[in-house]
Amino acid sequence: MTKYLAIILALYSTLLPPSLHANSPGKEIDHLINFVSSSECTFIRNDSEYSSSDAVKHMNKKYQYFSSKIYSAEEFIELSATKSTFSGKPYHIKCKNQPAQKSQSWLLNELARYREAVRLEAENTQPAEENKQKG
């Protein structure tokens, strides 16, 4: 039974439009991790400052710990990059020439920007794909 369910799910996923594959939670989470990694921002956790590479290490540890509860990029942000599990204090981000802000807002804004870019890319490639199928 499990084997048949896996086959059905695999076949079903091939029927999804490419834009939905590009916007999978795993790809969104990877994008957010890369976004943090490439930022030159300071991450403030429990009143201590950390580099972006240290922040990524910490987020990845929490991501692994909470992986069974994370099914979306929003859940990744909430469980791995928003607040201290121990103190409950929110994490903050301080980027050059910008006021400090909560990491949750910063990451949700980037997620929205990324989703819009993926959507626009899918719209721009869709007519070319339709023309190939017609021709």
Radius of gyration: 18 Å
Q: Characterize the largest beta sheet: strand count, sense, and whether it forms a barrel.
A: 4 strands, antiparallel
Q: How many β strands by DSSP?
A: 4
Q: Tally the helices: what do you get?
A: 6
The strand order across the widest sheet is 2-1-3-4
In short:
This protein has 135 residues and is of the alpha+beta class.
In words, what does this structure look like?
The chain has 6 helices and 4 strands; from the N terminus they run αααββααββα. The protein has helices at residues 2-15, 18-22, 25-38, 52-66, 73-80, 103-134, and strands at 42-45, 48-50, 92-94, 101-102. It has a 4-stranded antiparallel β-sheet with strand order 2-1-3-4.
Key descriptive features of the protein:
4 strands; four-stranded antiparallel β-sheet; alpha+beta; 135 residues; disordered N terminus
Write the layout of secondary structure elements.
Blueprint: H1 2-15, H2 18-22, H3 25-38, E1 42-45, E2 48-50, H4 52-66, H5 73-80, E3 92-94, E4 101-102, H6 103-134
Antiparallel strand pairs: 1-2, 1-3, 3-4
